Amino acid sequence: MTIGERIRLLRESKGMSRPVLAGMCGRGPDWLKKIENGDRPLSSHTLLVQLASALQIDDLSVITGPAEAAQPVSTGRMSYPAVPDIWSAVMERNLPGHRIAVSVDVALLAGRVDQSWRLWHKSGHNRTEVGSLLPELIRSAEEAARSAEGSQRRTALVALSDAYRLVGQATAYVAPAELAWMVADRAMDAAREADDPAAMACAAWNLGNIMRETAYPQEALRIVEGAARELRPHLDNAPDDWRGIYGALHLHAAVTAAREGAAGNAWRYWDTANEVAKSLPSGYVHPSTVFGRVNVDFHAVSVATDLCTSAKALSLADDLDPDVMPSTERRSRLWVEVARGHLQRGDRTAALHVLDKAHKISPETVAFTPSARVAAAELWRKAGRSMRADATRLAEAIGVAPAA
What we know:
Blueprint (H helix, E strand, L loop, with lengths): L2 H11 L4 H7 L4 H8 L8 H10 L6 H4 L18 H9 L14 H17 L3 H22 L2 H21 L6 H18 L2 H17 L3 H15 L8 H20 L3 H17 L13 H14 L3 H9 L9 H17 L3 H14 L1 H5 L2 H13 L2 H14 L6
Helix pairs in contact: 2-3, 2-20, 6-8, 7-8, 7-9, 8-9, 9-10, 9-11, 10-11, 11-12, 11-13, 12-13, 13-14, 13-15, 14-15, 15-16, 15-17, 16-17, 17-18, 18-20, 18-21, 20-21
């Protein structure tokens, strides 16, 4: 196999799209396509190391071939120490004899899952803090789903589904593809077994995220559209959270369509989410998707940015008060979108300023979000002399430039 063929095989085995992997190296998808197809040589040792790191390969000879001596590679800032323990907890369900010895209070378990979701949105180091909780949370939720009976079992199954959805969020972009698909499938199975329409819609929202980020946008749209159709008949006199996830499904569809360049569909989905937000009480926020008035407005910036209408994106951002968003992660992601908008206009000074702001709000959100890494790498490569030191410092902190 050629180097390009090995890279493509490794990328596809991890469920990574070409734009995501290229972006982690500060390059565009066309660059990676030419390498994978053998139309462009890859002789730069630095780029080889960046690709290996992004692919979480700790030996460069896996890419360069067996004729080369083994060359250790640091997987850098994209490594996620919690993944092995999470993987072990996920896999234990398939192994005999792995059950926790104590009974699980179902109500307490549901509260712990809810608290973990709140921590995910509140913490600037959410992957580290939530990741440390997930292994034990998975084990407890699995045990509760096995042992509970009657209505308690239904509650336990919903908690199990919510826990697996959180695993999907916390391990996005760093977990092996097989883990991402497995936890999405388990979240959906638990929700279906609970026969809870809102839980099934939440699981579909989670599955749609994974499908979109692994280069299956049309399938992602079908998943969230189907979930919205299934939930719609239940919305009359339904709890607010049911309407909240219905709106979140449409926001998901809006971003997915925007990334495909389908402006009409993107804004149509957004309009539906906007109407849902208007129907909910003032200040309402969905507990896991943070759907609500503020998040709808934040997503308008994302849609405009993904459609490369930077003037509209920046104008929309100017009218927002980010501090009213209760989710630290979403506030950070808003500033990432604003940075992308400035880059689309060629204003690197403004882009660097707001991307640094995003990083200060939530370092891990920026470090593990591909679009943020792409922006930081571009600023690092193209910054003028006056911005070079600041751009390098930010790129090093995010992990897209080698530390000095």
